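Two quick folds needed for the group meeting slides. Do the first one here.
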Amino acid sequence: MTLDLARYHQDGFLIVPDVLDRATCQALIERAYAIIDAFDPAEHRSVFTTTEQVRTADDWFLGSGDQVRCFLEAEALDATGALIRPKRGAINKIGHNLHELDPVYAPVCQGPALAAIARGIGMDDPVLIQSMVIVKPALIGGEVVSHQDSTFLYTNPLSVTGLWIALEDATVDNGCLWALPGGHREALRQRFHRDPTSPTGVGFETFDPSPLPEDGFVPLEAAAGTVVVLHGQVPHRSGANRSTRSRCAFALHLIEAAAEYPRDNWLQRTTPAPRFCTQKQGSEQGA
């Protein structure tokens, strides 16, 4: 696999097509729906939305760092909190430890193709800190507002890299990613962290009060099997999905093992996060 590193360093993102084949993508989609089918929303009616993230954080969300849990779309519930859509069309995302716990997702996460990308962009000793399926269901798929991934997975020094994998074709019509070329040179604006003084237990620490740029974003349309590599500081977003097609994607986030991961980051685990299997490690193990 040849990566255009000059383009990545210039833009802060890179589109890598044909990393997963369509059969693998379909298997991952089917597994996601099996997880959704087994989920009981009557027990855990936790909504995820990036437009009100502090308000909607709850124990189900804060305890998901080393679990596999489902989160609902805001528009899947009526004013009384009752589910008004079929489950498969009501889930916002599944997270945040598929890479370790799920028998279908884990082998893909530790496969040689993704490891080659991590090594190819220069990561030294990457740790898989987070994984999630983002369903973006038809008609009600929620907007993801402009953000920097380092806001949510802060390390010192900053080190997070996102691998966003299209499991279905992602287009402008059904809510593909948009990113700001060169935006990774923007300063980190804030950090989302646990805050015992907040009613919901979380809050934002501001480093730079200036807003992220609003103009200059470009669409990152991606066929199923494409990996979009995202620098931790590049601003990116996705629009609401009002089309009749879902836009299922799988996102992994990697950090460097040597970087400090603060104890008040929102995502915490009860066990150490697994190292990412690299090509070099695989060859040493005879894999």
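Then this one, please, same format:
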Amino acid sequence: MLLADICIRMLLSHYQTECIEAGLDEAGRGCYAGPVFAAAVILPKDFFHPLLNDSKQLKEKDRDTLRPIIEKESIAWAVAKVDHDEIDRINILQASFKAMHSALDALTITPGLLLIDGNRFKPYKKIQHHCIIKGDGKYASVAAASILAKTHRDAFMMQAHLQYPQYGWHQNKGYGTARHRKAIEQFGLCALHRKSFNIVPVQLPIF
């Protein structure tokens, strides 16, 4: 637990204190298949959990532990997704922005400031935002958003695995692992693959 304690001390509870903040992050941007998910989270100023950190730095069981805690103790939270067809139509960057906007639309409280993980964002209404590189490892609300986006997307891909077990999505969650690439070579692309990603040099059958 010592390492987790060190990590939590590095997370800041807020960027400022004048207005309500929402942290935002996405999951699945680099995947070969499935939707991109985004989450928006407004945490209480005094929220604390020793495991809270960037979702990529946590084990799956720790993310699964944190998800219900974040959902219960947040002032407000929302998760949204943009599917593979929309990703192919508007590109993955714009799809990520759209998923974030949809998550913000679903919040029951309107924040006054948005903290975005990464270096780019499409402005949302007239709400001020700050893009923060590796923000999910710096601010608690962004870390919480990264965990919700990741766990909700993983749950979606686990269900998709039941329909398309040959790609091993229960393990790779749609990312381009060696097993996933080999399965594409053998079976072709399925309906949930992102066709605009040019996953294979020659288009294979889609089923």
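Slide caption for protein two: The first strand starts at residue 21 and ends at 27.
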